[in-house]
Amino acid sequence: MNVLLDKKVYTYSDVNSLPEGNYEVIDGEMVAMTPSGFRHGKLEYVIAEILGKNLSSKGHVAVGEVGIVIRKKPFRLRAADVVYVSKEMSPREPVGMLEIPPDLVVEIISEDETAGKINNKVQDYLSIGVKRVVCINPFAETVTVHCQGRSDIGYYDFDERFELIDNVFVTLRELC
Predict the structure, then answer these.
(1) Domain limits at 49?
(2) CA 127, CA 159: separation in Å to the nearest integer?
(3) Total-model pTM
(4) Residue 12 domain flag
């Protein structure tokens, strides 16, 4: 359940002094995010492990509600479950909130998230240049893959093999 935390309006100048917690900032307003469950966390771990194993020499992987600045005014900060940033995009490992678009964002859908909320998040990521957004729905056991500059969306179930990114293919049923 996403709820507004307080009435303070946050701006981009707050980016390095935001309070600890599990939230996003949508047009200056802090929106709480429900803590994730075990399967959600396991999927984050498994995806990050696959990315690390296959792409660690080519980039950087992070998990756990990684902050991504979408827009400075009005301030919009999204929290991604898993991100991969290539060394082409950032030769050094990023520090703090990401102000560059990751090559890949993986969102694991929580039970309380609506299709509209997920779609808004995907559109935010694509709007800043994220090349690929993978949404994993552990309840429906489905995966959708959204690619920058493409209107078609890839739909898969947990038994189907799909490309996570850069010739890294997975079948989620085998992993969870």
Answers:
(1) 35-175
(2) 30
(3) 0.93
(4) no
Please state the domain count of the chain. Answer: 1
Does some domain include residue 98?
Answer: yes
Nearest to 63 by CA among 46, 86, 76, 39: 46
The CA distances from residue 156 to 15, 45, 80, 166, 173, in Å, are 36, 20, 21, 18, 11
Residue 5 has pLDDT above 80, yes or no: no
- CB of 173 closer than 8 Å to CB of 162: no
Mean pLDDT of 106-131: 95
**What is the pLDDT confidence band of residue 34, given thresholds at 50, 70 and 90?**
confident
Quick check: 87 pLDDT over 90?
yes
Q: Tell me, what CATH number does 67's domain have?
A: 3.90.1570.10
Helix (H, G, I), strand (E, B) or coil at 74: coil
